[in-house]
């Protein structure tokens, strides 16, 4: 089964307009399996949410985290249960902070990497130079409030260039919630899990293996059948998802991108179309960014 | 509560960085108040502050950083609507996290009374040891931006 994660959310513990209680209720109402609390530079909301979930036995899991808000970019950690200082942040060596957070058990992600910083909002753009991605679990390729072309598209392209050149890093989405915004037709993160399984543990396993889906509600999965790869659509039953009349699957490799009609619900693609590695993306209608519905994990031919 | 420490200072335009104040709490305290304030009138630009040079600088920054071409009118909107002095305050006790205020209040308190704490802060029963208060400066838009930090504490019941 697939579980839905909302990995980037704020409360009144930092700069949002919603309390921890309201965040929980908002997530419950939208059928989220697991949400994270990621307030800016504070973990003070964690005990508040822990207490509510423990006392009320609510059918939702929480990942307790924080968003590092630094002078040179934001690092969103949906899992970070203790405050790890960032005051010695090194623009040329951010790996030190990623590694320190990982030692504390964190799941680490680069948040909205191409957001506008100065003069709009200093620190929002990721200006740090990462050369070693070992401790970077994911790139937030879609930050829902950000403009699609100016900010999110370069994030998708950066992640694709990384994974197609062999870097192991997952892709996730975030609502960057600061209020009770609707999550209908917004991108969420999905990962495979078991009924009754620990969603936080499953998230950790998913980002470690790169098996995360960024989707508005329709997912695409695949299996190798002989010399072909069969792609199949999976409806994630996300509230507010509007199905499309037609669906297009694209496969991006180092050499280019090919498109396939997958309106029937599945499509067979020759194995050679995958090359060494390919990123599958699903669109409602033709394959243009405005129609993007899902970015699936990179497929590596060696792993098929 | 008794005042334990007070400091005032000025920040120059464009400063980015942090200033940490270390205060030794020699006796155990049950309440703590870290009060930080900075000039409200220097937080944002006013229409009369928007000079041709500032507009040109803003246009150049957008072009250089984001390959973004903006008009003078858009630059004026950014200067008046987006650009602000942004300062956060963070506290630790014996290197343990006490809290951080991210809300852009020009007058803010980190208050602890044993059972509760201000938003952004973690409640704590007692305070003893090395308190560090860090002023995290993300942006200062005007010279001579004055700030004041005042730390007070008590043994309870105040």
Please tell me about this protein's structure.
The model of chain A has no long low-confidence stretch (mean pLDDT 97). In chain A, strand 1, helix 1 (20-29) and strand 2 form a beta-alpha-beta unit. Chain A is of the alpha+beta class and 304 residues long. Chain A has 2 domains: 2-214, TIM Barrel, CATH 3.20.20; 217-303, Immunoglobulins (Immunoglobulin-like). Chain A has 5 helices and 18 strands. The longest helix of chain A is centred in the middle third of the chain and has 17 residues, at 148-164. By secondary structure, chain B is of the alpha+beta class. Chain B has 2 domains: 2-44 and 84-154, Jelly Rolls (Sandwich); 47-81. In chain B, the strands form 2 sheets. In chain B, strands 1-8-3-6 form a 4-stranded antiparallel sheet, with no helix packed on it. In chain B, a hairpin with a 2-residue loop joins strand 4 and strand 5 (96-101). The mean pLDDT of chain B is 95. Chain A binds chain B through residues 12-15, 39-44, 47, 69, 71, 82-83, 85, 87, 116-123, 125, 150, and chain B through 16-18, 20, 58, 61-62, 65-66, 68, 78-79, 82-83, 86, 88, 90, 92, 97, 99-100, 102-104, 117, 119-122, 134, 136, 138-139.
Q: What is the subunit organization of this protein?
A: heterodimer
Please tell me the total number of domains of chain B.
2
Overall SS class of chain A = alpha+beta
Distance between the termini of chain A: 20 Å
- Helices and strands of chain A, in N-to-C order? EHEHEEEHEEHEEHEEEEEEEEE
Alpha-beta classification of chain B:
alpha+beta
Spatial strand arrangement across the major sheet of chain B: 1-8-3-6
What portion of residues of chain A is helical?
10-25%
Report the total helices of chain A.
Answer: 5
CATH class of the largest domain in chain A: Alpha Beta
Specify Rg of chain A, calculated over alpha carbons: 19 Å
Number of discrete helical segments of chain B:
2
- Count the E strands of chain A: 18
User: What is the distance, rounded to the nearest whole angstrom, between the alpha carbons of the first and last residues of chain B?
Assistant: 6 Å
